[in-house]
Amino acid sequence: MQVKQVSVFLENKEGRLQKALKILAQNNIDIKALSIADTSEFGILRMIVSDPDNAKKVLEDEFAVSLADVLAIEVEDQPGGLEGALDVLTKESINVEYIYAFVDKKTNKALVVLKTDNNQLALDILGGIGFSIVKSEDVYSL
Q: Taking a C-beta distance cutoff of 8 angstroms, is the pair 112, 140 a contact?
């Protein structure tokens, strides 16, 4: 039930982000969510895309690319919607390494992408107490 995330190492130079996105567009790969963490020298572009394996393939000629397993949960798109899930993870001593979110236009729910220090345990715990775990094929097809 984990989702593959594409991570791209980008030099912090004019046009590098645009080039990565252009390659995806030329290969008909749709970006579902993205996040960029940057420093003055480089950035890491993290994306959920419609076809992560193909995205890695088409990007790796130009960029350093990797795939990582992340999890996606659905929470109410309202104040405090995410806090309940984070509270559970904190109580279980599961560290959230990074997080980003987007709203599913169809359901009006927030889809939260998380990378933790123990994704499988996080999935088991959150799913076990009623949080909606989003299947990878559902995320890729949004």
A: no
Residue 66: helix, strand or coil by DSSP? strand
Which residue has 């236009």 as its token pair? 105
In order of 17, 18, 104, 130, the CA distances from 79 in angstroms are: 32, 33, 16, 19
Give how far Cα 142 sits from Cα of 7, 58, 60, 124, Å: 19, 21, 25, 23
Longest Cα–Cα distance of the chain, Å, equals 46
Q: Whole-model pTM? A: 0.90
15-29 per-position pLDDT tens digit: 999 999 999 999 999
Angle at alpha carbon of residue 137, lines to 132 and 79, rounded to 5°: 35
The token pair at 124 is: 């088991």
